[in-house]
Amino acid sequence: MSFFDDASLVFLPSGQAGKDGKAYSMKPTDGSGDFTFSRGSNLTSTRIDSNGLIEKGRENLLLQSNQFDTTWNNINITQTSGETGYDGSSDAWQSSFTAGSTRTFGQSFSQTGVITISIYVKAGTHDFIQFVTSTNIGAYVNFDISSSSAAKGTEGSGVIDSSIISVGSDWYRCSMSFNNTSSGTIYVWMINSATSSRASNVSTAGSIYIQDAQLEIGLTSTEYIESGASSGKAGILEDSPRFDYSGGASCGSLLLEGSRTNLVTQSEYLNGISWNAFINSSIDTNATTSPEGLTNASLLKENLLNDTHAVIDDFSLTSGSTYTISIFAKSNGVNRNLRLNDGGVGWGSGFTGKFDLTAGTATGGDIESMGNGWYRCSVTGTTNATTSRLIIYSTLGTATSYQGDGSSGVFLYGLQIEEGSLTSYIPNHSGGSVTREADVNTLLNQSGVIGQTTGTILFDAYFDEADKVNFSISDSSANNFISIETTSSNEVTAKVEQGGSTQATITTTTSFFAEGDRLKCAIAYDDRDMAFYINGTQVNTAVPNLIPACDDIRFGNYDGSIKADQRVNRVLLFTTRISNGNLATLTS
Amino acid sequence: MDVTRKYEFVDEAKADASIDLLRNEEGNLTESVVKLGYLTIEPPVIDEEGNTIKEAVVSTKYAVDVSWSTEPLQSWEAYIVWPTPMGIHNYGSSSQRDEYAKTYCQLYPESNYCNPPEPEDQEQP
Questions:
Q1: CB distance A110–B101 less than 8 Å?
Q2: pTM
Q3: What ipTM was predicted for this assembly?
């Protein structure tokens, strides 16, 4: 038999078939089997892409990002379109001005937290510009954009980082990152020299060329996103299904997670955290390439003392709750490793995670390779107070006290504290906490693809969380459903409920799976017989006397209120009961 | 479209009583609720050896954020607060952020947030 031909529904996330709000099925081909996907969060959602890099939701917060005569506030500046751009197009603009004060163009914005402004520029008859904001008096930087001497100039104290990068043909992409605390305006200001003061006058008339402005959340500029009357968005959108390649997988899985909050106020701008203490160490921002593939990882840098090298902070947590703390780390220097410790403050059941960043091993915590020397390191603890401590050490081997060299340490990125077990990375640049909302993937009112009196379900997923409901077909009531669930004892259960009565339950042994295991589960059913297979082996059989009429499919319970963290590889439905021999084949 | 709304209750018990109204018959939440708790107003002061010199100052009110997928319950309206967008917590949603900011400026049109400084405010050396 051909499983594909015989199936009434074939859902294969490995094909990455989806768009914002939809996850496509391969069968039926008329679209009636396509799942409706929702999450609501774009800027706090990530996945591991097919290159093994973290992908985020991105947004260009500027409007009319390459239409400088609309929305932009041009003050004593004349904008002319149709100029040759850095990309060979005719989409660049010439900005012309006379001598005087306030020769500038800008746009208002309201995003608070860590943000980065960037624009492509080329000198015309004028060589010097300044990025300046009305919100942060120290957030300004000067640029010399002449082809012979392009460089950054004077920089204000409010700048986290800035850069000028050649993109060819005398064009440069200039950028400035800063921590913004209120709404205001960001300007490109014409100045006299690389050392001009903030918002100063220009003494000669001139012109520059500009193209593709972008204002985005985060520590560095990313690939340009065109915007119009509303902000431009790219990467993971609010209702994008996340096809994930964690662990170096060659095929993608559909990542489904519950709502989760990252309590760390700055997950990447680690210098922006109000650390209680820096112990013989400092933090360098944008020190190296992160697991995202951008230069936005920090360095926990040791000083020259023969002592401990660490940072300490106390976090406001809920007493009696279990939290997972995670961070991406990479060794910088000979035998430099990471330790996460509870400091003995605020934890009833604490942690000391020792992470060998060369061998990729851990004691007292978990470690996962991200490639390129990066590891995601995590520990779990249970609080007994409302203020609980975290100490992040750079260690030499496993020694916390050692002779520092003033430059080595541990590269860090993506600090996360979440209640519960580890989930995907939730970026946060806001200065507060952020929540990634739950992934919801449903197919409703499609009884035709579901076996009503006889049928088969194949559900193939990585089970990342226990004591949840992973998959169900139902009529959206608690009375009629067939489900695949797990218990707190890590059993897997196939359950048939009809008319409010349990018709059949088949359960594995306890501790059947560890979180993260791939389980290929199949239930074949009719009113005389039911069989449950996992990974090629029959769990058991049962006799359900009545089969519920179902028309809804959920990755969760009958109303979606109980969902598991999981990565789904395949779902196949049949309107026939497949033989036990074929169930073994299907789940092998 | 989901909307973010922010609330403050006298204490956690009062917050829980309102949150219980958002549960289905099996006790599971039907909306995305984040209990922010008693927000820190002033962080603790800690010395370089990790000793607490001064305890943190926290709010007397218990804060809760909700991302409503349905019309917000009327019974919650008495507890709504409008911190400057987006306050101390958000759901990482561009559309919810824009909706909250728009509503905030309708309610508080004279606020600094809704009236960003003009270029004339710039320092002129």
A1: yes
A2: 0.95
A3: 0.91
